[in-house]
Write a structure and sequence with these properties.
Helix content is 35%, strand content 45%. The chain has 187 residues and is α+β, with helices and mostly antiparallel strands. It has one domain (2-184). Strands 1, 2, 3, 4 and 5 form a 5-stranded mixed sheet that branches. Helix 5 (141-149) links the parallel strand 4 and strand 5. Helix 2 (28-45) packs across helix 3 and helix 3 (47-55) packs across helix 5.
Length: 187
Amino acid sequence: MRNHARLIVITLMLTLAASPMLTYAASKAEINRDARAALANLYQNTPAAKLLAEKAKGILVFPSLLKGGFIVGAQYGDGALFKNGEVVDYYNSVAGSYGLQAGVQKFGYAMFFMNDAALAYLDKSEGWEIGVGPSIVIVDKETAAAFGKSMTSSTLKDDIYAFIFSQKGLMAGLGLQGSKITKIHPK
């Protein structure tokens, strides 16, 4: 009975945490505008990202994800997939987490798909889960500085490079998290 009550509380908290975000669906125009602005800002502040863009087969940009929680958390945001500088598809990123955590945070991230296989996996997986499938390298500010200086076709061996940017707010803790990226069809 006690575990059943916990499950109900967790389900209720996830539903309440996610419902304001799920009721608002961004339009194509909004996603395009925000994704282009976020990518331009990333290129301006992180030259390594601009260098990667020249070699990437596609770039998936989530300009603004909202993450929040207390013990149980949720994250949501919409993004755009760029190929050759043009938006070709739209995706959302949804995550749930459980553990010792508290806070609210807003951030964006961009994933640079370096080969056709990694990009194809995004579509064939019907809801791609981070941590499953192609290898991902998270590039932080310090790594980006060194990375940009030594970037060659022989050093770019991973499938996907991801940059996290525009972090605001405070989210702290330890926990288990699952994240899923799914194709959407905004109006």
